[in-house]
Write a structure and sequence with these properties.
By secondary structure, the protein is an all-alpha fold. The chain contains 9 helices and no strands. Helix 2 packs antiparallel against helix 3. The relative contact order is 0.16.
């Protein structure tokens, strides 16, 4: 317990850093994932190509490489931002590809007749997607979206290697201070467990309220 009690502020700072990364990157991933999923099912071929390229590139690019591309590449184009914001962009864009595929799979579970009926009533693509298809698809994608955001929370540990304050990075300071590396990692693991269990609990509540009855 000494590792935790004597370094509670350090752990707290790292914990809050991971929470902030998770929340902001999750919001970005959900927005981009929704947009790319809409592109992938759009009737316009250029939008489908855009969505396919986005998903294919990001899903097959190592997250660490994406961090390097964002942190080292964007400043070359004059975009200089805090490291934490760069980390949010890298995490959010990477996870958005997986969110996109989860949403697309949910959209594909909605019978085609639903969309055809909406179009026969005079609805355009955007109205059909937002008012008819997505509300039904949302119910079936709650668990996989939750799992994807849990993975995002754990992937945020990579940000510590790029000068971003987060939970895993606290072990460096603790190691320099001479604390047991084993117990340092135990309390780090507890912190991640709290975050992931919280996300899981939120999505369990959502699934019970809105999910598809089994």
């Amino acid at each position: 317990m000494d590792v935790l009690t004597e370094n509670f502020s350090l752990y707290g700072k790292g914990f809050l850093g991971t929470v902030e990364l998770t929340v902001y990157a999750s919001a970005l991933a959900l927005v981009l994932g929704f947009l790319m999923a809409s592109c992938r099912v759009a009737p316009v071929s250029s939008l489908r190509v855009l969505g396919t390229v986005w998903v294919t590139v990001l899903r097959n690019t190592p997250l660490t490489l994406l961090f390097f591309a964002v942190l080292l590449g964007l400043p070359r184009f004059g975009l200089v931002l805090p490291f934490q914001l760069f980390a949010v962009i890298a995490l959010g864009c990477y996870t958005s590809a997986f969110i996109c595929e989860v949403l697309r799979s949910g959209i594909n579970t909605v019978p085609k007749g639903q969309g055809e009926a909406a179009r026969s009533l005079g609805m355009n693509f955007g109205q059909t997607l937002s008012s008819v298809v997505l509300p039904q698809a949302f119910r079936s994608v709650i668990p996989p979206v939750g799992s994807t955001l849990i993975a995002l929370a754990k992937n945020s540990a990579i940000a510590g290697a790029f000068s971003v304050t987060e939970l895993l990075g606290t072990y460096k300071t603790l190691n320099e201070l001479g604390y047991s590396i084993i117990w340092s990692f135990v309390w780090i693991a507890v912190g991640y467990l709290i975050i992931t269990l919280t996300i899981s609990a939120v999505f369990n509540v959502m699934e019970k309220r809105w999910g598809v009855a089994r």
